[in-house]
Amino acid sequence: MFYRRAGIRHTRYQEERQLFPLTFDRVLILFVLAILLSAPFWIDRLYLVGYMVPWLIWSGAALGLNLLMGGAGQIHLGYGAVIGIGAYTSVHLVRFGVPLEIAMISGGLMSAAIGSIFGAAALRVKGIYLAMATLAMQYIVDFFTQTKIISGGTLATLQVPPVSFLGISLKSDLATYYFVFGVTFLIALYMLNIRRTSFGRALAAVREKDYAAQILGVSTYRYKLLAFWVSSFIGGVIGSVLAVAYLRAISPDQFHLELSVQLLAMVIVGGLGSVLGPFLGAALILFAPIVLNNTLGWAASAVGTEIPIDLRAHLPLLAYGLLIVVFLLYEPLGLAKIYDNFRKYLLVWPFRHAQK
Residue 98, class by beta-carbon neighbours within 10 Å (0-12 exposed, 13-18 middle, 19+ buried)? Predict the structure, then answer.
């Protein structure tokens, strides 16, 4: 079979520490990258801009949140606010003529600074109390983003001037797609490697038992703050990408609590602690409501009835809640675990008794 382990004998530590020790895994990754790199040449522009680019952006955001929730075990209900901080910071800097490269880093640093302040609550509280602290962050940031000095007012919209990245203009859909793909790829590569570092192992120890990690010499205070800092930095960078390269115009109502709930659903449905999970979760959360809405609309038309507009508008929230409940009941580790179970089945097929 493709996944057969027979014949693999590691003779060096470098071989054992490979990200993808199996040949089939490496071929599969290259195949997926080839599809994504060639997507603009065989996917219609409508699907490329309307589906592929948002999927990559929200996958990157879910990766940042997953570092905190799946990596360090810290809950965050205000990640939409983190993204909004990075978005507004970068937009203001770009409007003042700052290059996009510096604006993105500045947006990430601003989000990391503010996110770490609220993340300091994790040093004293956890669980539902930490969730309330991050929820308070969401409401506080929502209040400040509606002020004139930041957004121009509740109903104001900030337009983003034409920008370029490393000398390449982001006016075209092709350039925008590859820019978003490059940022998400770097985040995913970082997430793949962080688990093999001392930082990743310390986060895992804090996630499992923080007081046991403290006894073993792992500074839980330090690594909890670092987890909030790194996660918020990634969220700020994604906010910059979202505002400057994709939306090109932002308003306060784009970074509300519903966005935080969507990102939370992406992480839970995709799989906590997984790199593949955020991609699968983002795809399901983004596209399932669209499919559900269209299916219900078609069914209503077929039977000659109409679905109220208010009901159809709230169907995405219904889908998020239903998906979260279903996965928490039947597969708490999400879609990534389902894929991993299938992969492990192939590793030992047809000898099912050899499964561990």
Answer: middle
pLDDT the model gives residue 144: 84
Handedness of CA 264, 328, 119, 60 (dihedral sign): negative
Among 88-97, 194-203, 325-334, the minimum mean pLDDT is found in 325-334
Cα gap 278→195, rounded to integer Å: 16
Q: Which of 1, 200, 223, 39 is nearest to 116 (CA)?
A: 223
* 171 in a structural domain: yes
Q: Please determine, for residue 191, whether its predicted confidence score (pLDDT) is greater than 60.
A: yes
Number of domains in the chain: 1
Counting beta carbons within 10 angstroms of the beta carbon of residue 61, is it exposed (0 to 12), middle (13 to 18) or buried (19 or more)?
buried
Instruction: Give the count of beta carbons closer than 10 Å to the beta carbon of residue 339.
Output: 15
Q: What is the CATH classification number for the domain harbouring 95?
A: 1.10.3470
Q: What is the mean pLDDT of the chain?
A: 85
The DSSP output letter for 124 is T
Residue 15 in any domain: the answer is no
Stretch 124-132: mean pLDDT: 80
- Rounded CA separation 244/108 (Å): 13
Identify whether 350 is preceded by a cis peptide bond (ω within 30 of 0).
yes
Helix (H, G, I), strand (E, B) or coil at 250: strand
| Owning domain of residue 141 | 40-354
- What are the pLDDT digits (tens) for 84-119? 999 999 999 999 989 999 999 999 999 999 988 888
Of 300, 315, 313, 235, nearest to 63 by C-alpha is: 235
